[in-house]
Write a structure and sequence with these properties.
This protein is mainly alpha-helical. It is built from 6 helices and no strands. The chain has a domain of 84 residues. It holds the Pfam family zf-RVT.
Length: 125
């Protein structure tokens, strides 16, 4: 896609530079996101309200419960459907930890990346 012939040459170059530069920034961003999410500190409605930011209380994905990190990543009906498409079984995080124990390190890192990126995309919705 970076060398899309329909884009003017200066746009193709800018796109290549953006893709190349984003690798380390994205990796650091995912690590920060995972750290915040694991602490329950990512910017969800409950955390924004604690900081005095006006926002909607209910989860924008299911409109049923208050949006918290726990709800967003594990109990939201939308999230459950996303995880069901990727993995069979019940508790995704229990499955993730069990899978990590049997995988060799390079494969473990790839598995971690999939789970973190899917969680990040859910949060971004």
């Amino acid at each position: 896609m970076a060398d899309d012939p329909l884009l003017p040459p200066h746009r193709r170059q800018a796109r290549r530079m953006h893709i190349g530069e984003s690798n380390s920034t994205t990796r650091a961003g995912f690590k920060l996101f995972y750290w915040l999410a694991s602490r329950g500190s990512c910017l969800t409605a409950d955390n924004l309200r604690k900081q005095g930011w006006p926002n909607q209380t209910y989860c924008p994905l299911c409109s049923v419960m208050e949006e918290t990190c726990t709800h967003l990543f594990s109990t939201c009906t939308f999230t459950i459907q996303v995880w069901a498409l990727l993995f069979t079984g019940g508790d995704v995080f229990a499955w993730w930890m069990a899978a990590r124990k049997i995988l060799i390190k390079p494969h473990r890192r790839k598995m971690d990346a999939v789970v973190i990126i899917v969680s990040w995309r859910i949060w971004k919705e």
